[in-house]
Specification:
The chain is an all-beta fold. The strands form five sheets. A six-stranded antiparallel beta sheet has the order 8-7-10-5-12-15, with no helix packed on it. About 0% of the residues lie in helices and about 60% in strands. It is built from no helices and 16 strands. The chain has strands spanning about 5-10, 10-15, 35, 45-50, 50-60, 65-75, 80-90, 95-105, 110-120, 125-135, 135-140, 145-155, 170, 175, 175-180, 185-190. The two termini are about 25 Å apart.
């Protein structure tokens, strides 16, 4: 006998029927996945178009197992592809996406959208959440907040993510910098 796995408020929990509360030798897991990046809803919205791969820098504050990549969006549509990249020193801003760690994809819907990834160990540090959508979508935007330098390049939806984030896109031109406020993209990590 065991509990039923539930997803509540961004963490993984287990529900145990009351009668099982006194079973000896059963250990309940007390930790749950934490969202790193920007999981708290920002006050404004902004749009990103299709036909581009966008990269936003995030910080993961603990070593653990990456379980999901996600986005918090008001009412998106279409499909999304997401990836997590290492941080590479260099580029115009001194930091840019490096090597592909993992990727995922799914159908977009409103609210928290957590897309499962293969379980991968990550250490605390700087990473890049990279995404591309099949249609124009609106995302929560931290208008008036701190800005960040996004990296992006033009490529048709569905072409996939390269093993190493390009310094320039050979077919369609350079990787560009875009200074803009942060948006609600994140990585879920289980300690």
């Amino acid at each position: 006998p065991g509990g039923l796995p539930l997803a509540v408020g961004g963490g993984d929990y287990f529900a145990m029927p009351h009668a099982y509360g006194a079973i000896t030798g059963v250990a309940l897991k007390g930790s749950y996945a934490t969202r790193y990046g920007f999981p708290t809803q920002f006050p404004s919205t902004g749009a990103w178009n299709t036909g581009y791969i966008f990269a936003q820098q995030i910080t993961i504050a603990q070593t653990g197992t990456l379980t999901h990549l996600g986005v918090l969006a008001p009412a998106p549509s279409g499909n999304i592809m997401m990836a997590l990249y290492t941080n590479r020193a260099g580029g115009s801003t001194g930091s840019e996406p490096g090597t592909l760690i993992t990727q995922t994809a799914g159908v977009m819907s409103g609210g928290f959208q957590d897309y499962p990834t293969p379980n991968v160990t990550v250490t605390n540090g700087t990473y890049w959440v990279v995404f591309q959508t099949s249609v124009l979508n609106t995302y929560y935007l931290n208008t008036g907040g701190a800005t960040t330098t996004w990296k992006y390049y033009n490529t048709p939806y569905g072409t996939g993510f390269p093993a190493s984030f390009p310094l320039s896109n050979i077919l369609l031109g350079p990787v560009n910098d875009y200074v803009r406020e942060n948006m609600n993209f994140y990585a879920r990590v289980l300690p």
